Amino acid sequence: MPVQDEAKAQRLLRAFMQFDKADWHQSTIEGCKPSEIKLLLCIKRQVKLTSHKMKVSELSRMLHVTSPTITQLLKGLEADGLIERENDPLDRRAVGVALTAKGELVTSRASEAFFASINGLIDYLGEEQSEQLAELLTKVYIYFNEREPDRSMACRHGDKEA
């Protein structure tokens, strides 16, 4: 790779890596960690759409994490009174999950905080740059999403260029 291209690649990589250190996705809301907030918001959205309590396996699939990870998060949320779990009367192995009134309040506050943050970014960047950023981030997502099958195939075949 030419030195000029390597410098551009390093600059882009540093820009991406800054997000790992950013405070906005690491702060707590109402004492809940970002992973817990994400789970609560997922439960709220899906229960609203489907009108049934969520199962651990559904949450696991939607959030792309293992069922034991979801179960651990749910234990903490249940202990804090944010969710309730109930055995499915038709399948005793299945457990349905729903938000409590306290969980509803926390998700509302989290949504408000999130949109206030995004609106602050729009104010900071302006309308035009906000639109450009949205377009660019969508392109980045598509680029990496389309390349992922190529990379996984190369890794399976032992190619060193992946």
From TrEMBL:
Name used for this protein in its record: HTH marR-type domain-containing protein
Source species taxonomy: Bacteria, Bacillati, Chloroflexota, Ktedonobacteria, Ktedonobacterales
Any one Pfam family match given in the protein's UniProt record, by short name: MarR
InterPro entries: HTH_MarR-typ, Iron_dep_repressor, MarR/SlyA-like, WH-like_DNA-bd_sf, WH_DNA-bd_sf
Domain HTH marR-type positions: 9-142
SMART domains for the chain: HTH_DTXR, HTH_MARR
